[in-house]
Amino acid sequence: AVGFHQPGSIRIASTPTRVDEFKYQMTRAGWHPTEQYLITPEKVQELFPLLNMDKVLAGLYNPGDGHIDPYSLTMALAAGARKYGAQLNYPVPVTNLNPRSDGMWEVETPLGIIQAKRIVNAAGFWARDIGKMIGLQHPVIPVHHQYVVTSTIPEVKALKTELPVIRDLEGSYYVRQERDGLLFGPYESEEKMKLQESWVTNGVPPGFGKELFESDLDRIMEHIEAAMEMVPVLKKADIVNTIAGPITYSPDILPMVGPHQGVRNYWVAIGFGYGIIHAGGMGKYLSDWILEGEPPFDLIEVDPNRYGKWTTTEYTAAKARESYGFNNIVGYPKEERFAGRPTERTSGLYDLLKSRCSMGFHAGWEQPHWFYKPGDETGYKPSFRRTNWFDPVGREYKQVMEKVGVIDLSPFGKFKVKGTDSVKLLDHLFANVVPKVGSTNISHMLTPRGKVYAELTVSQLYPGEFMLVTGSGSELHDLRWIEEKIARGGYKVEIENMTDEMGVLGVAGPYARQVLQKLTNEDLSDASFKFLQCRHLKLSNIPVTAIRISYTGELGWELYHRKQDSVPLYSAIMEAGQKEGIDDFGTYALNTLRLEKGFRAWGAEMNCDTNPLEAGLDYFVKLNKPADFTGKQALKQIKEKGLKRRLVYLTLDTDNVDPEGNESVWHNGKARTTVVGNTTSGCFSYGTQQSLAFAYVPMELSKVGQKLEVELLGKNYPATIVQEPLVLTEPTRMRLQRKGESPKM
User: Which residues of the chain have a pLDDT value below 70?
Assistant: First the structure.
């Protein structure tokens, strides 16, 4: 008996923006098996007859939702674990952790030492204290959460069925039935909420167990009043109990689950802001990963390695306040949250650019999303429809396509790999061949089951010395995987993380060569510096590693340099490009440019849920290379069996809204219209003046010309599978031009 009630839950929309948010959420739920419905006010009232309906515009209904008694569930799981042979010892404090050179652990306790192949930190409030034993500062912090229980309410007692859990998002609280009364829990604003900061500095008090904090009704008074207005029977109810206890928050409310970079065989399952809800799912996720050597599905959002040295205690506290206060705010697309920013992790150009653009947060870095010009509506103005950045991004798109643009790419993760076994290691790690000296390629690390764990660019700068580059969000996620492979295989290799020391500037557009040539004696002509070549040179006397590659798909270079040289390098390039009309561009324009070229992105078109063949990455996967790279055997089997689905390229007829990924794709079949897949990325194509998206659909619906529909904000828009790409890349256009064909722009 675990006290499991399943009355469902309803989120209440009482503003038009909330209704949009629910529609936005519905298209994301549509391609998942979980039941969820957007319901009318009449249906809301039928399910929860005690509501004041004055402000209710819609409800988001999850019939499978409910609540459970955490204590009973914990005891039941413990009993089940014992039944299958687990040993549980408590109360037993851990006093010290010793990592051994063979990767094993010694766990010291007052009752003796336990030897373990791996350890999992699932210590809740004590997670930080455990982390400190091995020199880690886990970014978790305890937050005071209060809830109120009422005595019997006659109107509740008279009901025949249990009320669903209600979340009034504008009032920022939840209400559920507790016996014959109601239980009510608010999330106070950033300014009013309370952190237990002393636990962060001094550790959790010895002996703390089931104790509670002192309650403070004044702090939640405005929420109580909002609840009384929404559920009028609360006005007459007596409060019999106010509970105030600690819950652990991470900076972004999501937990940290999985192996931790920098420490071998140390796993975490910490920072669960919603506690017991995640217990079963995360327990299974973690044990499957430990047993199989790879995650059962992609949960990069909870990767502990999304945080790093930049995640200070001050940052964690500022973010936890914000996250708690924002618990029920509207979740817009491309959301930015500003507490705790900037971190100490800024690019060399941050101070120069910060007032001229709208910055986005990427793994601790600030990176320009789009730039301001006179007459623009500046600042962060989130919306479910096209908003203030729509026209400026079109302008930046045109800048790169017609002239030349500069972008700060410093947040890239950057690693140096060298040593006697470096070629052997990379040949085993990557599905592509190892690039020759002076060359670069795009390579994928696959899991044993043949899923795409990561995408990196690999450059062999000198014989046996490589530079590996990955996206900002994947830095430690990828580094951990590589370090694990080195340790397990005993490779004689050194890997160095250069991410923070190195700046990167991207220069792209038809005049990119003309501008950069003014700054160097090195010949940058196509004959001398080919696509996907890399070399060291000096630009305006500043040493750079230049790679002829660009995620824009236009003529361009990525320029890797010392962080302290970012400003002089940027200034020299801007100065040199005056005549060509050089200007800045940001990541929003970059995203449009890469989508028009049909370039895939890791985390969207490919991740640990997708194999490279269905993602259309065949070109980068060399199944015939001699090395038995990780995932090779699994891929051969996948290829033999044939694919069930594949990535397609869609154009859409929309109005004031564009796809961005994770939307439901519908097909109008003979009998009925059904959800057949999902988008992975999308945007407005400024070059062809229509919306564009990548999507996964079943093989039988994947032919060019196939008509589908994409659901955006509650409406299905017509979509057509087209031949990719919409715009050919610059190297392809040049090749066709040399052959005398006229390339499509």
Answer: 743-745
